[in-house]
Design brief:
Elements (H helix, E strand, L loop, with lengths): L1 H25 L13 E2 L3 E4 L2 E4 L11 E9 L8 E9 L17 E11 L2 E7 L9 E5 L3 E5 L5 E6 L4 E4 L8 E10 L3 H10 L10 H5 L3 E6 L3 E2 L13 E2 H9 L4 E3 L9 H15 L2 E3 L6 E5 L2 E9 L19 H14 L2 E7 L10 H12 L4 E5 L7 E5 L5 E5 L4 E3 L9 E12 L2 E17 L2 E6 L5 H4 L8 H11 L10
Parallel strand pairs: 12-13, 12-24, 13-16, 14-15, 16-17, 19-20, 20-21, 21-23
Antiparallel strand pairs: 1-2, 2-3, 4-5, 5-6, 6-7, 8-9, 9-10, 10-11, 12-25, 18-19, 22-23, 25-26, 26-27
Helix pairs in contact: 4-5
C-alpha cells in the first residue's frame, strides 16, 4: 500500500510539473532570456508584456499563441500606405498554410515577422514569415522603410521589401534628391586597442557590429582623433596618439567616406603625422576634413554637401603652416568660409571640435559659435571633444534658417574608464532636395556602447547591447544604467523636423 501511494504521489507531482511547464511554455516564459519584450505606447498601438492592442481595434489580436516582441507602423512596401510590422514569437514554425512537404506543424516557439495592411475593418495579413533561421534581439527602422536587424550578439543585417516580401540587402538603395549622413564621435586609439589590433592583425573589430548602420548611409563621418603614422616605430598611445595605417584601413573598409582631422590631437605627431594621415586616406578615397583651408564638397544622389571642420586648438603644438589645421579663431574669416561654402552647395554641415571635457551640457563658447554657424546658413553642426554626450538642439539663424546641432557625440571608441565615456552617439540625418531647396527632414541620435573586457574592445549599438554582454563589461556597466544615462544626456532633444 505504501509503495502504491508513493507511486501515485510521484505521478501526481510529475503531472503537476508537466502542467506547470506546459503553462510556462504556452505563456512564452521559456523563450530565450535575451528576448526583450518592449513596453511602449504610440498613437497607434500599446505594447505590454508581449500583448499588442491597436487603438480603435481593441478586439483585434495577431493570435492567441503569438507574443509580440516589437511593432512598427511604416510604409514597408512603399505603396503609399502604412503597414503594421510585428516582430513576434509564435508556437509552430508555420501558420495555416504550410509548405506541401511539411506534414504537420511543430510545437516549438519560433520567431517571426508579420506584416499587415491597415484597413478600415482592421489589419489584414499581407506577408507572414515562417520561423526565422536567425535570431533578432532588436531592430531599427532606417529611412522610414528599411530594417536593420540585430542579433543577440550584436551582429547586424539590412532587410527591405524590394519585390514581394522582405529580402536581405548588401546596402540600401540610393535615392535621388535625398542623402542620409551618419556621424560618430572620437576615435581614441589607446594601448588596449593597439594591442588588440596587433594580435588580430587588423582593427576591423572596432566596426564589426555597426556595418549595417554604416553601409546603409550615403556618407559616414568619423572624428580621427588618433593621427596615422607610416613608420611602425612611431606608433604610440596617449600621450601622444599615433596609430598604425591598419587603423586607417579599417576606417576606410567600415566604410567611412570622410574623417575630421581638425582636433586637438591633430599635431601629436607633428607635420609628418598630419601628412601621413592625409596621404593614406587620399589613397583609399576617404575625404579628410579640417586640413588645407578649403571646404570639401561631396556629391551624393544629386545633392551637393559642403563640409567644414574646425577645432578650438592643437594642445599648444604650433601649426607647421597657416592652413595645416583649421582653427576656430578668426570669426571674420570663418564667416567668409561659411558663406563661400553655402554658395557652392545645396547643404552645409560643420564639424567642430569644441567645448569642455566631460561636461554634461554645452558651454558658452559652444553656444556662441553654434549661433554664428546658424546665422551663416549651416544646416547641420556636429560637435566632438567633450568625450561625453551632450544632446541635440535646433537653433534658428537671424534669417530664420533652422540648424540642427549635435553638441557632442561623445567617444566613438576609447579605453577611458567611466560609464559616461563608454556611452557615445551616432548622429543620423536625412537631407532632402526639391524645387524649393534643400533641408533636413529627419534626424536621430542613437546610443553607442564601447564594450570593454580583458583583451577585447569593440562598439555596439545601445539598442543591440544585451544584458549578457553588459555582464562581461570590465566596468560593471549594465544595459539599464546605460539606457537611463542616454535618456538623461539626450533629454534636451526636441521633436524631429518634419518640413
Amino acid at each position: 500500500m505504501r509503495k502504491r501511494n508513493l507511486l501515485i504521489g510521484t505521478a501526481a507531482v510529475l503531472a503537476a510539473v508537466a502542467v506547470c511547464l506546459l503553462l510556462l511554455w504556452r505563456g512564452g516564459v521559456l523563450l530565450p532570456r535575451w528576448a526583450d519584450f518592449r513596453e511602449r505606447e504610440t498613437a497607434f498601438f500599446r505594447l505590454s508584456r508581449g500583448q499588442l492592442t491597436l487603438n480603435g481595434f481593441e478586439n483585434w489580436s495577431p493570435g492567441e499563441t503569438v507574443r509580440v516582441q516589437d511593432a512598427l507602423i511604416c510604409d514597408i512596401d512603399a505603396d503609399g500606405a502604412d503597414e503594421l510590422v510585428l516582430l513576434c514569437w509564435r508556437i509552430g514554425s508555420y501558420g495555416a498554410h504550410r509548405p506541401f512537404w511539411v506534414r504537420a506543424n511543430d510545437r516549438a516557439w519560433g520567431q517571426h515577422i508579420f506584416i499587415y495592411e491597415l484597413e478600415r475593418d482592421g489589419p489584414r495579413p499581407s506577408w507572414m514569415s515562417s520561423a526565422l533561421s536567425f535570431e533578432i534581439a532588436s531592430w531599427t527602422l532606417l529611412r522610414g522603410r528599411w530594417l536593420c536587424l540585430s542579433s543577440p550578439d550584436g551582429e547586424e543585417s539590412l532587410w527591405g521589401w524590394l519585390r514581394w516580401g522582405l529580402e536581405r540587402l548588401e546596402r540600401l538603395p540610393g535615392e535621388d534628391g535625398a542623402v542620409e549622413l551618419v556621424a560618430v564621435g572620437d576615435l581614441l586609439c589607446h594601448n588596449a586597442i593597439l594591442d588588440q589590433g596587433r594580435r588580430e592583425g587588423s582593427f576591423d573589430f572596432l566596426f564589426a557590429h555597426l556595418s549595417a548602420r554604416l553601409t546603409s548611409a550615403d556618407l559616414a563621418v568619423l572624428n580621427q582623433e588618433s593621427v596615422l603614422v607610416s613608420e611602425p616605430g612611431r606608433v604610440s598611445a596617449f600621450p601622444p596618439f599615433g596609430a598604425p595605417l591598419a587603423l586607417g584601413q579599417a576606417v576606410a573598409d567600415a566604410p567611412f567616406g570622410a574623417v575630421t582631422l581638425a582636433n586637438n590631437h591633430a599635431l601629436d605627431q607633428g607635420a609628418a603625422g598630419l601628412q601621413d594621415t592625409k596621404t593614406f586616406y587620399a589613397r583609399t578615397g576617404v575625404a579628410v576634413l579640417g586640413s588645407g583651408g578649403a571646404c570639401t564638397i561631396i556629391e551624393k544622389n544629386s545633392v551637393h554637401l559642403a563640409l567644414l571642420n574646425y577645432t578650438y586648438g592643437t594642445d599648444g603644438h604650433p601649426l607647421p603652416e597657416r592652413d595645416a589645421v583649421s582653427l576656430l579663431d578668426d570669426e571674420a574669416r570663418i564667416r567668409r568660409e561659411l558663406r563661400a561654402a553655402r554658395s557652392e552647395a545645396d547643404a552645409l554641415a560643420v564639424f567642430v571640435h569644441w567645448g569642455t571635457e566631460y561636461a554634461a551640457a554645452p558651454d558658452g563658447e559652444q553656444r556662441r559659435w553654434a549661433q554664428l554657424f546658424a546665422d551663416e546658413g549651416a544646416d547641420l553642426v556636429i560637435g566632438t571633444h567633450p568625450h561625453v554626450l551632450q544632446g541635440v538642439e535646433k537653433l534658428s539663424g537671424d534669417s530664420g534658417h533652422e540648424t540642427v546641432v549635435f553638441w557632442s557625440l561623445g567617444n566613438f571608441v576609447s579605453n577611458q574608464q567611466s560609464a559616461e565615456t563608454n556611452l557615445g552617439g551616432l548622429a543620423r540625418v536625412r537631407i532632402e532636395k526639391d524645387a524649393s531647396g534643400c533641408r533636413i527632414t529627419d534626424w536621430a541620435l542613437e546610443g553607442l556602447v564601447t564594450h570593454q573586457e580583458p583583451g577585447l574592445t569593440t562598439v555596439y549599438p545601445l539598442a543591440a547591447y544585451s544584458d549578457t554582454l553588459a555582464a562581461k563589461h570590465s566596468l560593471g556597466l549594465t544595459k539599464a544604467a546605460l539606457e537611463t544615462l542616454f535618456e538623461t544626456r539626450t533629454q534636451r532633444e526636441p521633436p524631429r523636423l518634419t518640413s
